[in-house]
Amino acid sequence: MLSKSFGRSFWLFVAVAAATAGICYAVLGPDAFASVVERNGDLMADLLPRVAAAQVVAGFVWVLLPRDRMSQFMKNNRGKRGLVLATLAGSVTPGGPASAFPLLAILAGTGADRGILVAYITSWALLGIQRIIVWDIPLMGIDFSMLRLLIGLPLPIIAGMVARRLPFSVTLEISPPPEGGPR
């Protein structure tokens, strides 16, 4: 299981990080490089506990989730209704990627199709209510925020419909649930 965590995409990110680190050092010099490393270290120290906590919560939700009922719900809501529900769920999901992506994985594990998954994460990114309240309205004003919300409202549904029609398959690597847990 650990070896899957360090697949091609991980090593690609490592290579890109090493290349940009080398460029930073060469272009900006050792002092700027040290400053960037220090700030990134602080950021990692801040983010790692949040990501770990979100993973723990997602793990417990996965075990406690009545997957048979969720799977049936997903099968019954695969059409436009499923896209609308995914859009609503994405818009009210609080927090950053550490909370949204584990929930996305849980949705995938319950049998949601790729259209629902794309609609959910697109809605979270574009229409997050918390983001609108905390960032958009205070910084951009109510008029711009409502304009952006109204224009963005159909986009998760459109993205989900496009995702369903693309002529290739998507394989999600979801860890199997632990044995003996509730269903």
Topology:
Elements lengths: L1 H4 L2 H21 L1 H35 L2 H10 L3 H13 L4 H13 L4 H14 L1 H12 L1 H11 L2 H11 L18
Low-confidence stretches: none
Report the principal-axis shape: globular
> What profile does the largest beta sheet have?
none
Overall strand count: 0
Question: What gyration radius follows from the Cα positions, in whole Å?
Answer: 20 Å
Integer count of domains: 2
Give the overall pLDDT as a whole number: 83
Helix content: over 70%
What is the strand content?
under 5%
- The string of secondary-structure elements, in order, is HHHHHHHHHH
Structural class: mainly alpha
Total helical segments: 10
CA(first)-CA(last) distance: 23 Å
How would you portray this structure in words?
Helices cover 79% and strands 0% of the residues. It has 10 helices and no strands. It starts with a helix and ends in an 18-residue tail after the last helix. The longest helix is centred in the N-terminal third of the chain and has 35 residues, at 30-64. It folds into 2 domains: 1-64; 66-174, no CATH class. Helix 6 runs antiparallel to helix 7 (114-127). The chain is globular. By secondary structure, the protein is mostly helical.
Short description:
The protein has 183 residues and is an all-alpha fold. It contains 10 helices and no strands.
